[in-house]
């Protein structure tokens, strides 16, 4: 039987995720030569070739991909074992580290923390604001235990590394200045706003969400200004510089001179999901936080 070394398998897994030996070494706080040596030893232990040269880089062989498919099952089981041991040793106490995008922090995470604080005062939640891509990097690296992101920017449900939990479909409302001709129009549709000037980010998730929603309504939005923060976006809407789609979770930041209109017939939505490393969902502290997040989401 081949000799399976968990530490070396984790290095191989990180190389697959990071793409280069240098990036793998940085992620694992190792030297590139140590990474290469460990993978060479793993190849000898398993009796298969794991890497092959591709220009100045290396790529994983089919044998390496086969090894990792089985290793993911092992890693998930180890996460379950670690979760059960943590529950046994800590009981009600413990810490959960959360990476969440900006509007999810006040709308979902903070109310969930308040629930947990009342029911399980020994359970600490540590929060780090992070966009989707960063949140999953932190989750993969073990720096957070739970990531909150938008489904459109999360790994697919087929990704063996994570368990995904749908939380809610957050409606997108349109922000108009108070004096806008359509501010009080009945039955407002997104398509009615095709001739307007729009405010959204120059790139990233919100740019994609706004563009996709407008394209689904039959038009391409004309971008008047670019901004990423809701305070800046709503200030420009209030000044009559354009209009914007705003997630209902961000409605607390609404300016007094802005009217938020629900789009009756073609209401776009963004889907919010939580994710944990596969197997870790059974850890008592993580399970309690997931339950609290689901309760908060259900009330929205």
UniProtKB/TrEMBL annotation:
Membership in a protein family: Belongs to the LysR transcriptional regulatory family.
This protein's name: LysR family transcriptional regulator
InterPro entries noted in UniProt: LysR_HTH_N (IPR000847), LysR_subst-bd (IPR005119), WH-like_DNA-bd_sf (IPR036388), WH_DNA-bd_sf (IPR036390)
Domain HTH lysR-type: 4-61
Organism of this sequence: Streptomyces ficellus
Keywords: DNA-binding, Transcription, Transcription regulation
Pfam families: HTH_1, LysR_substrate
Gene3D superfamilies with a match to the protein in the record: Periplasmic binding protein-like II, Winged helix-like DNA-binding domain superfamily/Winged helix DNA-binding domain
Domain of life: Bacteria
């Amino acid at each position: 039987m081949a000799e399976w070394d968990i530490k070396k398998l984790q290095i191989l897994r990180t190389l697959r995720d990071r793409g280069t030996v240098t990036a793998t070494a940085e992620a694992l706080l190792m030297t590139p030569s140590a990474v290469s040596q460990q993978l060479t030893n793993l190849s000898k232990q398993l009796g298969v070739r794991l890497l092959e040269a591709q220009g100045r880089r290396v790529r994983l062989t089919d044998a390496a991909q086969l090894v990792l498919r089985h290793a993911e099952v092992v890693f998930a089981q180890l996460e379950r074992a670690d979760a059960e041991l943590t529950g046994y040793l800590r009981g009600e106490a413990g810490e959960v580290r959360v990476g969440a995008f900006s509007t999810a922090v006040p709308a979902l995470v903070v109310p969930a923390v308040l629930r947990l604080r009342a029911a399980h005062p020994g359970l600490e939640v540590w929060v780090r604001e992070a966009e989707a891509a960063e949140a999953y990097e932190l989750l993969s690296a073990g720096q957070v235990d739970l990531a909150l992101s938008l489904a459109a920017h999360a790994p697919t449900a087929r990704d063996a590394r994570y368990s995904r939990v749908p939380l809610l479909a957050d409606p997108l409302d349109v922000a108009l200045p108070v004096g806008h001709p359509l501010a009080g129009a009945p039955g407002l549709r997104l398509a009615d706003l095709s001739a307007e000037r729009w405010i959204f980010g120059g790139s990233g998730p919100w740019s994609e969400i706004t563009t996709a929603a407008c394209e689904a309504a039959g038009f391409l939005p004309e971008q008047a200004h670019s901004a990423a923060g809701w305070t800046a976006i709503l200030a420009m809407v209030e000044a009559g510089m354009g209009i914007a789609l705003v997630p209902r979770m961000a409605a607390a930041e609404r300016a007094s001179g802005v009217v938020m209109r629900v789009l009756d017939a073609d209401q776009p939505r963004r889907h919010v999901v939580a994710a944990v490393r596969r197997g870790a969902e059974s850890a008592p502290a993580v399970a309690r936080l997931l339950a609290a997040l689901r309760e908060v989401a259900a009330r929205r």
